């Protein structure tokens, strides 16, 4: 197959009646244009141009080639226009999936920094638990995801963007609020808690920490799907809850909730950015990932 510039040059010769004028229009020298035409004729196997004292004219075979080349060049131009539109869309749109903790307490400042760096980018954010986030990133519904679990979800590559610690909290009137010594992990495990729904990274980290003590967690007292609901339930005295330290810092400082120390229980965790395995974030997603590493 001849290359597209050679076909464009042939059409220019047909339109302008001169190889020299066609070369000037294409921004190349006349010797380069002649070489390009010789290559095209060699591929075609027949002469395409006839050189005359008054310029260049197409042979009958050359006329046929230009008729065939026209639709091909139009299709190539349409393809180029479409690819340019795809690139523009990719570079001006960012779809983010994030777990609750990241979405509520970390992403806002990252997105403000992204807006300053890339003011023309439109960001859509969808919030869910870590399992849902991973599934949507794997399905190609997001350019970048943020999860909070024991490890990176399967099928995804990841980068740690922040560290967090879970905190056991109770209302000031709860009996644990008056403890002078750390709560045994076994007692925490045996107590029905106000918890997030299955699939939540917070619930996964707590279950894994208790399992290392050989004490599986009791069935939840309540299952709630938002951090705000969990805090409200704990403040009302419904029962103890386990939440991100980012989420309860202000409530503990104001006395609405009391933090309960648990003996020997590791409740720290890593918060991760995730994307499909074997790929790399590009465009605005790469910029956001860079910003999280710079501000976490």
From TrEMBL:
The keyword Lyase does not apply. PROSITE patterns: HTH_LYSR (PS50931). Residues 276-296 are annotated as: Disordered. Keywords: DNA-binding, Transcription, Transcription regulation. It holds the Pfam family HTH_1. Residues 2-59 form the HTH lysR-type domain. It comes from the Bacteria. Gene3D superfamilies: Periplasmic binding protein-like II, Winged helix-like DNA-binding domain superfamily/Winged helix DNA-binding domain. Belongs to the LysR transcriptional regulatory family. This is LysR family transcriptional regulator. It comes from Streptodolium elevatio.
